[in-house]
Write a sequence for this structure.
């Protein structure tokens, strides 16, 4: 009855604060996630604002901001205003009683909590030395730089772990020279990626010495804790636990130290060699804060290297320090930089987890799980760890009894919150010792001013629509169209005549293959490269700035009406660029239901590969309204996606929606290097397809168009192999207005790659890539009317995505049945939509 009378977080008004009494969520996974985010008894939470439609809400706690729905906020119960001080005293009193008893028992067992003082001092000394000299290799005694630890010749693997949006991927790219995708919103890395650490010149001019070992860096998805909540967190946790990397580089966002150190503490529990890369140090300085790295290393017991991954500051030192850490590590526990992190907990927690360890040690060893970490996870009530141990019934009952005793020691009676609170109290002690804050948090103030407009109750959605409209106008109607025409002229008026002249003495069939096949096919696709580059440039700026999380925050409530959460909006928006990474991005969804719906709806978001088709036909048949026509296709895809979402929600996916909990990172000025890296990654992927798939398709189509089944060259393409095959399929598309073999074959080639539709049409109808829109329209006029052309575009918009996207969907859905359904559903929707378009258009056209 008492809990029912308590206020909940959702009852607070904007600007009001309250202290947490308990988290009462029915969903245990959601409850643990909320607790891991720092919402523990006694924590002060302030309501910052609500989304334009009233839900979700933004809250501020422990120096950072996050968003959650009011329904989830209703599960967070608050203390009365006068109760906080009394509660605090009762907790301290209960803690003192249990601490005294636990301290005595630990003393009897000769297991004090400060067993690793030397390890802490050593970490501080190494950190101080690196800050002064940049490397520890110059130490003459070599005590900190053992070179004999790994003598089996095996590669050394370093795991890069950290919170979402802490700069892991940027650091990975800096250390490996990779081109991995970087963005300023949670969940960019959706699978682990590996890269060889590049050689780095030292101060003496020599390259980084790996002593005969390859150093491989593994970039793991961002996680908030080792209690997996989403699929990406499962990937990261399983890798660290099961594959046991030689060392862990924990990248920590220095601007949000308390929130990030929670994962650090859990990684310490694994008792693996570890080093901290303290990132965003340039922003820490801008905010007027200072972090004493040597003191931080002393408190944590692991070396700390300050870096600024976005600018490259300190990367060389980090690589060298990571190498020294690996060579200093020994195989047995409690040596070198292996420390037993018992000082993380109060003595009572310390005692209870050791009691569990005495019961489960052989089972943890058999399961290949770190004992210390296993003890703590059982104390928290982690079912995955418990199942992995396969404990006998009597042992399981004894563990349960210890957990119940531990929970009873907390006035709220909650073991999960007690463990989390113990960690956060330790973190508060560490940050108080190492962090000195300036008078104001400049980053939060700057973000608040920007949010005043971008998340405004009235202006948020209009501003978002205006931004997207500007992106489409820039890409399709103005600069993008101008650059696209320029590339076309360069190919048609420059390259094609030059090649034709050079091949004047070559056989006629070879000249036709190169000029009419390859140049028309590949060149027709390359014409639209500037538009694709501009689209990815704009999307990259939005991602790197931190606006993506705000879009998810703004759009959560309207998305829920269609069976999705605001988190789904991010991969759906990515789908306008490329369906493949967008499908992989759906891993950030918190349950299978939302993940599957998101993947099934992604093909409705028109990917950039379809742009060449839109540009070709819209320019040919609607030259004055090309931008409007293309924009209408995007809108049609979104509308049909919404309707499909409603259909799925009410039929196949009727279960409960996943909760919406997302961190709102501060706005940051987009990094030119990050943005250009992302654009180049997508452009190079496009060029790779043009140079491989489109090239091969162009050669194959030229052959099939030029020869009949007797392998004799024909003048009339209708008599060719492809003409005969297309003629058999064409009647299927007659009701849609484009029942010709050319259109049918072009659509089939589009299943391999959507860009191939353009190269196919250019070859079949004999027009050049830089021809005026009127010339292209004239070439197509024999088989296409404007209405038929628009119907064709609708079909291209909606039918099954390319083979690469389908393969990715198969992997992410982990089901042939769902993949087959997605393909059949898209083709069916495309056919019906194109049929209705042509039928309704014909009716009004008379």
């Amino acid at each position: 009855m008492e809990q029912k009378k308590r206020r909940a977080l959702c009852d607070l008004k904007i600007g009001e604060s309250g202290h947490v009494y308990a988290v009462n969520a029915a969903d245990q996974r959601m409850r643990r996630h909320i607790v891991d985010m720092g919402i523990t008894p006694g924590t002060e939470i302030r309501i910052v604002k609500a989304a334009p439609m009233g839900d979700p809400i933004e809250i501020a706690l422990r120096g950072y901001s996050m968003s959650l729905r009011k329904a989830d906020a209703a599960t967070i119960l608050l203390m009365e205003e006068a109760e906080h001080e009394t509660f605090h005293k009762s907790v301290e009193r209960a803690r003192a009683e249990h601490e005294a008893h636990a301290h005595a028992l630990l003393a009897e067992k000769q297991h004090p909590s400060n067993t690793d003082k030397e390890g802490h001092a050593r970490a501080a000394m190494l950190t101080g030395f690196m800050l002064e000299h940049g490397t520890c290799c110059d130490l003459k005694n070599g005590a900190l730089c053992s070179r004999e630890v790994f003598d089996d010749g095996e590669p050394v693997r370093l795991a890069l772990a950290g919170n979402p949006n802490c700069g892991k991927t940027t650091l990975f790219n800096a250390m490996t020279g990779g081109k991995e995708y970087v963005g300023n919103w949670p969940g960019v890395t959706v699978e682990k990626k590996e890269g060889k650490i590049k050689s780095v010149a030292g101060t003496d001019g020599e390259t980084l010495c790996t002593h005969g070992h390859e150093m491989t860096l593994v970039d793991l998805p961002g996680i908030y804790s080792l209690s997996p909540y989403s699929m990406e967190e499962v990937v990261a946790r399983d890798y660290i636990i099961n594959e046991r990397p030689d060392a862990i580089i924990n990248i920590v966002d220095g601007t949000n130290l308390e929130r990030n150190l929670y994962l650090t503490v859990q990684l310490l529990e694994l008792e693996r060699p570890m080093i901290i890369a303290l990132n965003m140090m340039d922003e820490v300085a801008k905010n007027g804060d200072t972090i004493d790295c040597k003191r931080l290393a002393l408190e944590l017991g692991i070396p700390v290297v300050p870096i600024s991954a976005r600018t490259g500051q300190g990367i060389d030192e980090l690589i060298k320090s990571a190498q020294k850490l690996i060579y200093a590590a020994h195989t047995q526990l409690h040596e070198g930089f292996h420390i037993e992190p018992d000082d993380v907990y109060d003595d009572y927690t310390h005692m209870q987890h050791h009691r569990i360890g005495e019961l489960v040690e052989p089972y943890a060893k058999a399961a290949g799980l770190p004992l210390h970490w296993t003890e703590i996870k059982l104390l928290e009530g982690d079912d995955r760890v418990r199942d992995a141990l396969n404990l006998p019934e009597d042992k399981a009952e004894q563990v349960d009894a210890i957990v119940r005793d531990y929970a009873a020691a907390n006035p709220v009676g909650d073991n999960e919150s007690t463990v989390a609170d113990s960690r956060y109290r330790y973190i508060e002690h560490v940050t108080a010792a190492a962090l000195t804050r300036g008078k104001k948090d400049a980053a939060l103030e700057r973000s608040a001013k920007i949010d005043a407009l971008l998340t405004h109750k009235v202006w948020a959605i209009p501003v978002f629509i205006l931004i997207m409209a500007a992106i489409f106008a820039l890409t399709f109607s103005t600069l993008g169209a101008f650059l696209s025409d320029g590339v076309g002229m360069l190919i048609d008026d420059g390259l094609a005549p030059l090649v034709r002249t050079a091949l004047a003495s070559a056989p006629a069939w070879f000249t036709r293959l190169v000029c009419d096949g390859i140049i028309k096919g590949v060149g027709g696709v390359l014409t639209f490269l500037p538009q694709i580059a501009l689209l990815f440039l704009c999307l990259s700026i939005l991602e790197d700035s931190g606006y993506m999380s705000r879009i998810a925050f703004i759009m959560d409530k309207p998305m829920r009406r269609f069976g999705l959460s605001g988190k789904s909006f991010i991969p759906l928006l990515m789908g306008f660029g490329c369906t493949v990474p967008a499908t992989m991005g759906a891993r950030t969804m918190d349950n299978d239901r939302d993940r599957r719906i998101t993947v099934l709806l992604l093909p409705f978001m028109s990917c950039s590969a379809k742009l060449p088709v839109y540009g070709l036909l819209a320019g040919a048949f609607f030259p004055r309204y090309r931008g409007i026509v293309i924009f209408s296709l995007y809108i049609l895809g979104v509308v049909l996606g919404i309707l499909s979402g409603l259909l799925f929600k009410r039929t196949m996916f009727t279960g409960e929606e996943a909760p919406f909990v997302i961190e709102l990172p501060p706005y940051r000025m987009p990094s030119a290097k990050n943005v250009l890296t992302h654009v180049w990654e997508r452009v190079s992927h496009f060029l790779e397809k043009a140079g491989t798939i489109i090239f091969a398709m162009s050669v194959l189509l030229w052959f099939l168009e030029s020869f009949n089944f007797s392998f004799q060259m024909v003048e009339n393409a209708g008599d060719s192999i492809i003409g005969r095959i297309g003629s058999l399929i064409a009647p299927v598309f007659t009701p849609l207005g484009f029942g010709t073999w050319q259109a049918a074959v072009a659509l089939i080639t589009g299943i391999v790659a959507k860009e191939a539709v353009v190269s196919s049409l250019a070859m079949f109808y004999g027009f050049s890539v830089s021809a005026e829109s009127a010339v292209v329209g004239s070439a197509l006029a024999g088989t296409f009317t404007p209405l038929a052309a628009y119907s064709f575009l609708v079909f291209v918009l909606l039918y099954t995505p390319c083979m690469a996207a389908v393969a990715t969907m198969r992997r992410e859905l982990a089901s042939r049945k769902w993949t087959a359904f997605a393909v059949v559903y898209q083709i069916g929707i495309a056919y019906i939509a194109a049929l209705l378009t042509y039928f309704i258009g014909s009716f009004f056209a008379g």
Observations:
- The CA atoms of residues 117 and 301 lie 8 Å apart.
